[in-house]
Amino acid sequence: MIYLDNQATTRVAPEVLAAMLPYFTEEYGNAASVNHAFGWRAFEAVETSRGQIAQTLNCPAEWIVFTSGATEANNLAIKGVVAAAKRQIQSHVITNAAEHPSVLDVAKRLKRSGVRITILSVDRFGQVDSQQVADAIEPETVLVSVMLANNEVGTINPLAEISRVCRERSVPLHCDAVQAFGKIPLNLAELPIDLLSLSAHKLYGPKGIGALVVRRGERRIPLEPLFDGGGHEHHLRSGTLPVPLIVGFGAACELVASDRDGLRTATANRMAALRDRLWQRLQTELEGVTLNGHPTERLPNNLNVSFDSVNGEALMSSLKGIAVSSGSACSTADPEPSHVLRAMGVSEALSRASLRFGLSRETTEAEIGAAADEVVAAVRKFRAN
Ligand code: PMP
Questions:
Q1: Alpha-carbon distance 5 to 304, whole Å?
Q2: The pLDDT of residue 219
Q3: Where are the alpha helices (DSSP H) in 170-292?
């Protein structure tokens, strides 16, 4: 089976696994144990990884707060800022309709507890407009949360402009950079983002580890932790550090850093070329196909396509040779059409008849050719019936 669901998760790279293994069986110390060498070596491994991640982002290592993943990082960022600010004012948070559920559902929960929430709309490409962000900011706004790149359609938001708008108005900015990290340039020395969420498993690292990057210094944002305990990670995330996972996260960043080639990485360029070839084939061999997402401001490994006059569920289940993702959230018994596509104004029927292809550094030309053959044949068959 050809794996083209790399925006859901990726295979752990061999170098990453090799780096992790000794920390399960030999170097199994607790990074917080200060009395012996097992603890010191675990601590050193954690700090090396912290440095590797920070270097990839061009920020100080102290800004990295390890979490269990981006769901937790998003929760910590949004709930943490609101909890820290609530004592003084009735808080207002701004986000947008195309965010991941780990942002939108946090916003919904906060709304139920009395926080005022503004959900900005996105345009037909799924982009947030920086002027709309500016217009929505109020004196009580404690946080703006806008993702760097969308997980379904790959659209990249204008974070340079949005961060400038927030900075000018002294409003903290949180950014879910899970999908963009390692695929497009992300330099925190240039981009004034205050809180940034990351996850290792989208980038050839292990599942269950991520980070919230918390800007420090003059513009340090007050943040309350989600849970209390041993006070790890600057008291922002208590809990014994999962050393093997953290080592894997660092090794995955090394992999990305070793691949830099000017503004875009060589791997990103290769994935984009293969992705474009897939789109070219679908477009020329089928009628009634629409690209979802921004035509140019898009992640190099994402292709999201709607197919006219096809039952999306039936199409998905007929694709036996490729692992892709549909335009519905299939986690529920009654799949809802994608909230991202609906927010972009795509009809309910077309939203249901959409496929997301996610390429990785491992995707080959032959796999793309075989995937195109299978999708073209399946769509033609359904339309003929
Ligand atoms: N944000 C985005 C944009 C994502 O794609 C994902 C993963 N689907 C998450 C957050 C959640 O990440 P994690 O799996 O690390 O909790």
A1: 11
A2: 74
A3: 232-235, 243-257, 266-285
